[in-house]
Amino acid sequence: MKFLSTVLAAFALIAATANGSPMLRMEAEGKSKSQQQTQQSSTSSSACNLSGTYKAGTDISSCSSVTIGSLTVPAGVTLDLSKAKSGATITFTGTTTFGTQKWADPLVLLGGSNLSVKGSGTLDGQGAWYWKQGQSIARPVFFRLQNVASSTLSGFTLKNSPFRTFSLVTCKQTTISGLT
User: Fold this and answer.
1) Does residue 74 register a pLDDT over 70?
2) Fewer Cβ atoms within 10 A, N terminus or C terminus of the chain?
3) Whole domain around residue 31: which residue ranges?
């Protein structure tokens, strides 16, 4: 149960990171859609949306809610939800796909407190690519919960894990339930 709480906290962190996206700055500067990043934030700083191609360093720290739609995370980049606002809700609604690369960092990093990470979405770790490489290569942990407290993770689907599905580091009072 503590493991699940940690995962939820990580999702909340992702939500908070989405708010300060460089993609939004490009849109405000009048750049074309092809020049814009795909992370988007609503006009309210409390509701943030992530879709398209994720950019490392996306800031979700001011988001009370983060919705993650169809999202592609490039190889070698962690979907960083570790700075989620306390009490944030992170909702996976689409398919999140991760690029493949030999590396040991997590695909998803969640951190924070009083987070609710949920949704009907699917996270695809592209495990088949790693499995074909053999056991001696560096592989990412799918979902790391780090410093997550009093949080819940539920409802979404994790598939094709490259290595371990979850890694819990310094988590407490966290519940993980109903994941597929």
Assistant:
1) yes
2) C
3) 2-177
